[in-house]
Design goal:
Strand content: 15-25%
Strand order of the largest sheet: 2-1-3-10-4-11
CATH superfamily of the largest domain: Periplasmic binding protein-like II
CATH class of the largest domain: Alpha Beta
Number of domains: 2
Helix content: 25-40%
Number of helices: 10
CATH architecture of the largest domain: 3-Layer(aba) Sandwich
Oligomer: single chain
Largest sheet: 6 strands, mixed
Structural class: alpha/beta
C-alpha cells in the first residue's frame, strides 16, 4: 500500500543530510543507501544527500556540529552520539529475518590452521573501529570477561583496525590476518553479493544477541520533519530493503540499547 504523500512544511530545510558509518567503505555504503535516499526524497519532497566519513567518530562529530541531520549508526556509536550530541532514535533497524538483533563473531580464514578459540594467542587480529559494536566492543568485552581476562594488546602478536566489516572479513579470508571481529549479518551479505563464498571464513566464537543499529536525528530539527521521516522509514518498500540487505525498520527507544551499555561498562571496569 502506498503512503499518502507528505506535504513539504515551510519550516523544513530544502535539503537534509544522512550520515553513514563506514560498514563497507564510503562508495559502497552510499550505493546501498541510494534507493532509500531516493525514496525519502519522493515522500518528503526534499533533497536527501548521503554523507560518509572515514571512521565512526567522524559521523559523531558531524552530528555534533550539525553537518548532518540524520545518521545511520551501530549500537555503540548510537550510545556515544546520544551521550555527546543528544541525537535521538528515529527508527531501529531490522535484519532480513525481521529481528532487531544480531550476533558478533570472531572469524578466521578457512586455511588459517586455527581450529578453536583456544588457538588464538599470539595471532594477528583485525578489529573494525574503536567505535564499532560488532567489530570491537562485543569481542573486547568477551575477552575482558574471561578468567583470567585477556588483554588484547599483549595477548595478540599484532592488532589492526580494518576500517570496515568488508575489509576485516576479506583480510581474514585472504589470510592477511589470522583473526577478525565482525558479525553474522555482514558475512551473510558478502556471501549473497558474491564477495566471498560460503566457507571462506570460519566462525570461532559467537556472542549473545545484540540490538541492531538505528537511524537517529540530531538535536534541533523540526519535530514534524522527524515524524515524517519516521513514518516514511517504517514503510520502506521491498526494493529499498533488498538494496539495504535488511528487513526495514521499527520503532525503537533508548532503553533498547541498555545491553550495549552493559558491555561498555564491563569493558571499562575490567
Amino acid at each position: 500500500m502506498l503512503l499518502p504523500q507528505i506535504s513539504f512544511a515551510s519550516n523544513w530545510p530544502s535539503e537534509i543530510k544522512l550520515g553513514l558509518i563506514p560498514i563497507e567503505g564510503g562508495s559502497n555504503e552510499k550505493e546501498r543507501f541510494t534507493p532509500l535516499a531516493e525514496y525519502l526524497e519522493k515522500k518528503l519532497k526534499i533533497k536527501v544527500k548521503l554523507f560518509s566519513a572515514s571512521d565512526y567518530a567522524g559521523i559523531i562529530t558531524a552530528l555534533e556540529h550539525d553537518h548532518i541531520d540524520f545518521a545511520y549508526l551501530g549500537a555503540k556509536t548510537y550510545i556515544e552520539a546520544y551521550t555527546k550530541t543528544g541525537a535521538k532514535i528515529v527508527v531501529m533497524e531490522l535484519n532480513e529475518k525481521g529481528f532487531s538483533g544480531y550476533k558478533g563473531v570472531i572469524i578466521t580464514g578457512k586455511n588459517s590452521g586455527i581450529n578453536s578459540i583456544k588457538d588464538i594467542k599470539g595471532k594477528t587480529f583485525a578489529f573494525i573501529d574503536p567505535n564499532s559494536t560488532s567489530g570491537y566492543l562485543i569481542q573486547v568485552a568477551y575477552f575482558k570477561s574471561l578468567n583470567p581476562p585477556i588483554e588484547p594488546r599483549s595477548y595478540f602478536k599484532e592488532l589492526k583496525f580494518a576500517g570496515s566489516h568488508v575489509a576485516a572479513i576479506l583480510s581474514a579470508k585472504n589470510l592477511l590476518v589470522d583473526l577478525a571481529a565482525t558479525n553474522e549479518i555482514d558475512i551473510e551479505r558478502m556471501i549473497e553479493s558474491g564477495q566471498i563464498a560460503k566457507g571462506d571464513v570460519r566462525t570461532l566464537w559467537t556472542s549473545e544477541l545484540v540490538p541492531q543499529g538505528a537511524i537517529v536525528a540530531r538535536k534541533g530539527l523540526p519535530p514534524d520533519l522527524v515524524k515524517a521521516i519516521q513514518k516514511a522509514l517504517l514503510k520502506v518498500p521491498s526494493h529499498v530493503k533488498a538494496k539495504l540487505q535488511d528487513g526495514g525498520f521499527k520503532l525503537g527507544k533508548d532503553s533498547d540499547y541498555d545491553y550495549v551499555r552493559y558491555l561498555m561498562k564491563i569493558k571499562e571496569q575490567l
